[in-house]
Write a structure and sequence with these properties.
By secondary structure, the chain is an alpha/beta fold. It is built from 6 helices and 11 strands. It has a 6-stranded mixed sheet with strand order 3-1-6-7-11-10, sandwiched between helices. The longest helix has 13 residues. It is globular and about 40 Å long.
Length: about 190
């Protein structure tokens, strides 16, 4: 497997597991991973939140870890990366309002590079208007957005993955094994 450079676009209150696990796992297998956040630079920290499924009507939220960014958003050039990863949590809710973020996401899609989105990470794809005619999954609460964006929402188990071309999506962090395996397969293609 040849080492690839992967970009993670994230922000405060990203889901803890959805940033920590892919960031570490992708490095573990030899990839170079840059985690960036608008208006922050290398060495700055973002707060994370732990979302869990405890039998309530929706997930619960608890404080997570602080996560240190290892690259600066303003320095990002999509052409320098092989793939994009979009974690969930609450960060995508406000990141989708940032046109620079949406332009970065659109560039990866235009270049047909692998894009992995989990949980609420799909909100960046809906806001960038990239799901027209595509199929994907996400946290179920995002399914209306997927449909309104012209995508086909695929209902899957919480630990499952859905792949449509260069797009690898999953509903939440219990899908990490399947989601990351599918993403790695695309990276190796």
């Amino acid at each position: 497997m040849a080492s690839k450079r992967i970009l993670i676009v994230t922000g405060d209150y990203v889901e803890d597991y959805e940033i920590m696990v892919p960031f570490q796992a992708l490095q573990m297998v030899g990839h170079e991973v840059h985690a960036v956040c608008p208006d922050k630079k290398t060495g700055d920290q973002i707060r994370t939140a732990v979302h869990d499924f405890e039998g309530d009507q929706t997930y619960t939220e608890k404080p997570g870890h602080n996560f240190t960014l290892n690259a600066t958003f303003d320095d990002v050039n999509a052409a320098d990366y092989s793939a994009l990863l979009l974690p969930g949590g609450r960060a995508p809710e406000y990141l989708r309002l940032n046109e620079q973020v949406l332009n970065v996401v659109r560039q990866f899609a235009e270049d047909r590079k692998p894009i992995a989105a989990i949980c609420h990470g799909i909100q960046l794809l809906t806001a960038a208007n990239l799901l027209q005619g595509r199929s994907c999954t996400s946290y179920a609460a995002c399914s209306p957005e997927v449909k309104l964006a012209g995508g086909t929402y695929v209902e899957t188990a919480v630990d499952s993955v859905h792949v449509d071309g260069n797009l690898v999506t999953a509903p939440a962090w219990p899908a990490h094994p399947a989601w990351l395996a599918a993403f790695l397969k695309l990276l190796d293609a």
